[in-house]
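Notes on consecutive records. When two proteins share a document, each keeps its own sequence and its own token line. Never mix them. Below: protein one.
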Amino acid sequence: MARVVVVGSINMDMVVTTDTFPRLGETLFGSRFATFPGGKGANQAVAAARLGADVTMVGCVGDDAFGAAMKATLAREGIDVSHIRTGKEATGVASITLSGGDNAIIVVPGANNELSPEDIDRASDAFANADVILAQLEVPLDTVLHAARRAREHGKPSFLNPAPAVALSDELVSLTTLLTPNEHELATALQTPAGWWAEVLARMPGRIAMTHGKEGAYFTQADGTLVHQPGFTVEAVDSTGAGDTFNGAMAAFWHLGIEAAVLRANAAGALSVTRPGAQGGMPTLAELEQFLAQQS
């Protein structure tokens, strides 16, 4: 069982389903509304926990109904919530519009913006006992950098899903064991021209696993050889949590090596889009193993 510490955001997702996306100034009728637990950090924590990892969440919520609900939801997944602090701002929310399996999302960070380097230091014992530290960019960048520094001090691999995409400092890149961007996020994070991703992966062998939608994922071996892990064909219902599922799976299976981890992460991501909700579709370890057995 991998021990994973997730440093990241905790949101409540408010999801509207429509036939088409509204244009500027247009009002449409939707067909469905629901709330789902979300936030990239919480999503990735749930994904890793369902796939068998022992997960600790480091985050911040508001003193409100959404915050209480999110902590309870994570605890029900078997996640250690003792390092989730209650801040002054409201719990973060995401407004999500779904149409035809695609999504458009607006995030209001709220209490996520209060997650601080001091919160990382208070979780020192969890860092010391972890096998993988996993972070994203829906919390302050200084906090993410501090987490990467602490991971290095403890001799732990540090994963970074650079989303939402921003340019990363040389220090953060050097401290990161594995980057898990899509093509756009990779170009933004490392400030490289669009379309140069193969060259970038070759320059950082074994340190990038790049997702590419239905095509699957790409990574390079230690000698710089480019490897394509094809995607899996499924009937998509809601693509919201696919990337987060991929990241949680990479952390849960990292001990198997990058090739085996990417295979399983791709399959888990594919399964996640077959049910609604960012966390609702995330598979269990048993479901993942059954799905992989059916593919062989």
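Protein two starts on the next line and is unrelated to protein one.
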Amino acid sequence: MKDARPRSRAKTAKKKNTEYIVEKKETLLVSLLSHLPHKSRNILKAVLKDRQVSVDGKPVTQFDYALVPGQRVEVSWTRAVPVQQPRELNIIFEDENIIVINKPAGLLTVATDKEKRKTAYSMLSDYVKKENSENKIFVIHRLDRETSGLLMFARNEKIKEQIQENWGSTVSQRTYVGVVEGRIEQPEGTISSWLTESKAFIVYSSQNPQSGKKAITHYKTLKANNTYTMLQINLETGRKHQIRVHMQDMKHPIIGDKKYGSSDNPLRRLGLHAQVLAFVHPSTGEPCRFETGIPEKFQQLFSA
């Protein structure tokens, strides 16, 4: 049913807040500039960064956050004293149930035998405890250490279990950007196989349905030269090392991925970035979509 609320312009509330109802699909910063023409782009970027903008009651800092008609945007002109974010993390969305970060390459999601403290999990745990010592963080999914990009955590165990148990119906899109060795002749396609992990923590691919869990990966070429190909990669399933193994299957391994066949490492990191994460919010039922830019180092490989 269409929202019956009247269309309205931005209005200023008594508590130095501005609020309005979204009338069309557009990004958050574009919407703010349209509804608040007396405010400069720099001012609006500053209030976004300082977590003073909320959408349907949830703080949003991402300037290109996708809005849909009927949502309520509120801007607080009173700057709150923020809890200092971990320097290594870029928190792009946070509410009482989930936190979405843009993880840098080189940072573990969770602890290992060799690294206990410098992980996304431990940093976020310390961060939420500054607000309340009883606050906790729960891991929903993971990214490999050398993979950068969007990663979601839960702020309570119920939300964690709800998302994990309903992963297929909750998460609607996981898109990666990957740079692989060589030029791929077929510009787009689908790779399907069954994956199994050895005791040495290496994942193997097979066409035998009895060998492991089914994995399906879709790819599309974004850029190419004689040395590398940049791919947009969509996961239909989310198996461990799925993209890395499937690119090895194609004889075009992810650059920097020595474990799965790469002999070239121009970035001094894995050429894989989790660019888009879209899901149904576990508490409100609203669609959420986050997107980051393609890492500049990836782009530089195709600038010549």
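For the record: The chain has seven helices and 18 strands.
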